[in-house]
Amino acid sequence: MKKLDDFRLSFGNKELIPIIVGGMGTDISTTKMAIECARLGGICHISDSICNAVVDRHYKTNFVENRYNQYKNFVSQSDKSEEKFAIDEVQNAVNLLVSKTMEQKKGDGEIYINIMEKLSMNNSSTTLKARLNASLDAGIDGISLSAGLHLKSFAMLEDNPRFRHARLGILVSSQRALKIFLLKTKRLRRLPDFIVVEGPLAGGHLGFRMDDLNKINLKSIVLDVVSFLKKEQLDIPVVPAGGLFTGSDAVEMMEIGASAVQVATRFAVTKESGLPDKVKLEYFKANQEDIEVNMVSPAGYPMRMLKNSPCLGSGIRPNCERLGYLLDNHGGCSYIDAYNAASKVKGERLRVDEKTCLCSHMQLYNTWTCGQTTHRLKDTTNRLENGNYQILTTEHVFNDYLHSSNQEICLPSLEEK
Q1: For residue 416, pLDDT beyond 80
Q2: Given CA atoms 22, 23, 25, 27 in this order, what sign does their dihedral have?
Q3: Domain span at residue 123?
Q4: CATH number at residue 114
């Protein structure tokens, strides 16, 4: 039986290990994780999700506090339309995150950044353009465009000196979405360098309607996209994502026309992940019935997470003055509406069930998004005498994907550091 190591991802004359670690925000796929994957010859994403807070944590900047000081008088107001992000601060935060990561890069692999269109930031076009260009200016190897159709994103980059040299990819969940993107960007004569095809078993935000989650599978979407590209005579690498838990799962995708696979769930609980260890253990303990898909995200997409995520039902006050990443172009957010409605109900504890303050809870690691295969994590490692689970390294998980076969998973030794 073939192993994933029998395949390579080709970008022109460059060959890479066909493993891409997805962009897990906020600061779950960390700089440390990205450096490790690049050293091993693969690709890993960092994420610019709530970037100002991430760089504050790591580099002692004050982006979040400065914003709060500017808008603290708006805390009690529902209208947040005046709470704009300073574009130079957006650029500086992304530039700092990317440049510090790229300075430490080793090996022949590559480091990309995942950029979500749905982080509208009360000024969607201007802030998105700033984030995209700052990433290229800071030297990132590539950008994955996610959480939206990104119909204007390539045009936002066309004047950047690296527009035709850095790798640019698009995440889609259907052939139709890919067709729309290609049609919209046709005038630029600049095709995406790769296409991530995300299926319904993925973690976090999903590009499907709730009613369709059980009707569609990743393999059928991949075959659909591969067939379309072949028909159009377009040689673009296709990268399946969502539910690929073993090396054998990955090989199955390679054999139907994929060029690489994107994985995340098993890397979310590695030593290099930004999740606190106590949260990683919640993932290991999870059973299949502990995973749900809900509509609590203000972004408007279904989102898969653990049912015991602290964000669910939380009545935390909207934190738009400090963060505000999901404010729409009119300063609105569905969580603010849900919070205000819940505030009118008398009770001992304010509870908001319809939506969650995603910005706050992502920063606090209280939104435990996960893939559908999370319940299998306990089978990938050892149970320790104290009842906890051994936390693995990025290198161990990476190599297990690369060298395992027959659905095997290589358990680490207890002495493995």
Answers
A1: no
A2: positive
A3: 4-78+85-275+389-403
A4: 3.20.20.70
